[in-house]
Design goal:
Blueprint (H helix, E strand, L loop, with lengths): L1 E6 L4 E8 L6 E9 L1 H5 L6 H23 L8 E7 L3 H18 L3 E5 H6 L24 E6 L4 E8 L2 E7 L5 H11 L6 H9 L24 H8 L7 H26 L4 E5 L6 H13 L3 E3 L3 H4 L4 H7 L22
Parallel strand pairs: 1-4, 4-5, 6-9, 9-10
Antiparallel strand pairs: 1-2, 2-3, 6-7, 7-8
Bound molecules: 5'-O-[(R)-(carboxyoxy)(hydroxy)phosphoryl]adenosine (KG4) and zinc ion.
Zinc ion binds next to helix 4.
Length: 340
């Protein structure tokens, strides 16, 4: 089976073509056009502008993805698309394009929740040798704990099967990615903040600044990151940027690792899957790897390019889902939750 996946929930216009030959899900092509550099000029995402960039990119990105896959449209078995959550203007571009293609190419349409899609990057067979120990052969097995760390979400869920998962907790205010982004802004660094903070952190001392680790000792699976951002805002001398970056990163990583391991232990699972843009953070991955190794837990983290928004994760999730009876009935849902 060959699935074409479309992702346009925010500022990335993405299309990928995946196949599940021999029960392994592999990537035939994976094209991402991003308007992040344009958004960076304004210090964050302007929804109207992101939507206009989506419209410009969607057809060229789909065409490039088809071409790179070496397959023609006739060979595609189904179309998958992100229908929420995200920016409504951006989502509409992907959803309406996917509906139109499903109609004119006469293909089934599979709607995918963007947040669930992030987790499914862990079901794609790596096509290159992984750079970190966290990548293991094979795919996750159930039950497993899922940690979603993206720009808008920080959630812990318990998966018992494909499509069967329970919400354990999440952030009460800012998401981990949002905290990286807001702290970067306070340091005068460009958007998105995560990659630049982690780069600067390599040269800094993570113990230089005493920053709070909100809710790290709470017995639940909730998070709070807004206090960390406020603590950074209150630092008067921000000249030691690398030290500050390292201290911010360490505070975020400490909380994410502690809560994830706490969930793994409470539910006695043997697999931990991590997803979302912040999973591209190598400090987070290496600290999770150390904790998981000592408890014989299999850790799954997608390669960095599959952590941030892409079409491959959407197509991957679609292999485990049903197509709509009526493709034209699909509506974009900007407020779609992970657990509905
Ligand atoms: O999953 P994603 O691409 O988009 C959403 O669905 O939100 O996540 C974007 C977030 C941004 O907040 C960005 O700063 C963060 O992921 N991010 C990182 C890294 N790369 C991206 N955070 C920390 N370290 C990174 N290397
Ligand atoms: Zn995302």
């Amino acid at each position: 089976m060959i699935i074409l996946g479309i992702e346009t929930s925010c500022d990335e216009t993405a299309c990928a073509i995946l196949t599940n030959n021999d029960k392994r899900i592999t990537i035939l092509s994976n094209i991402v056009a991003s308007s992040a550099l344009l958004q960076a000029k304004y210090g964050g995402i302007i929804p109207e502008q992101a939507a206009r960039e989506q419209i410009k990119s969607i057809i060229p990105v789909i065409e490039e993805s088809l071409q790179a896959s070496g397959h023609r449209q006739q060979e595609i078995d189904a179309i998958a698309v992100t229908y929420g959550p995200g920016l409504i203007g951006s989502l509409l571009v992907g959803v309406e394009t996917a509906k139109t293609l499903a109609l004119i190419w006469n293909k089934p349409l599979i709607p995918v929740n963007h947040l669930l899609g992030h987790f499914y990057a862990n079901w794609i067979t790596p096509t290159h040798l992984p750079g970190v120990k966290a990548h293991l052969e094979g795919v996750p097995s159930f039950p497993c704990i899922g940690l979603l760390v993206s720009g808008g979400h920080t959630d812990l869920v318990l998966f018992t099967d494909h499509g069967k998962y329970k919400y354990l907790g999440g952030t009460r205010d800012d998401a981990a990615g949002e905290c990286f982004d807001k702290c970067a802004r306070l340091l005068g660094l460009p958007y998105p903040g995560g990659p630049i903070i982690s780069k600067l952190a390599q040269e800094g001392n993570p113990k230089a600044f005493k920053l709070p680790r909100p809710m790290i000792n709470s017995k639940d699976f909730d998070f709070s990151f807004s206090g960390l951002k406020t603590a950074v805002a209150n630092i008067t001398d921000k000249s030691k940027v690398a030290d500050l970056a390292a201290s911010i990163q360490q505070a975020i990583v400490d909380v994410l690792v502690k809560k994830s391991i706490q969930a793994v232990e409470k539910y006695q699972v043997k697999n931990l899957i991590v997803a979302g843009g912040v999973a591209a953070n190598q400090k987070l991955v290496s600290e999770l790897a150390v904790s998981c190794q000592s408890s014989a837990i299999r850790l799954f983290v997608p390669p960095p390019e599959l952590c941030t928004d892409n079409g491959a994760m959407i197509a991957s999730a679609a292999f485990f889902q049903k197509a709509l009876k009526n493709p034209l009935s699909l509506q974009a849902d900007p407020n779609l939750a992970l657990v509905t």
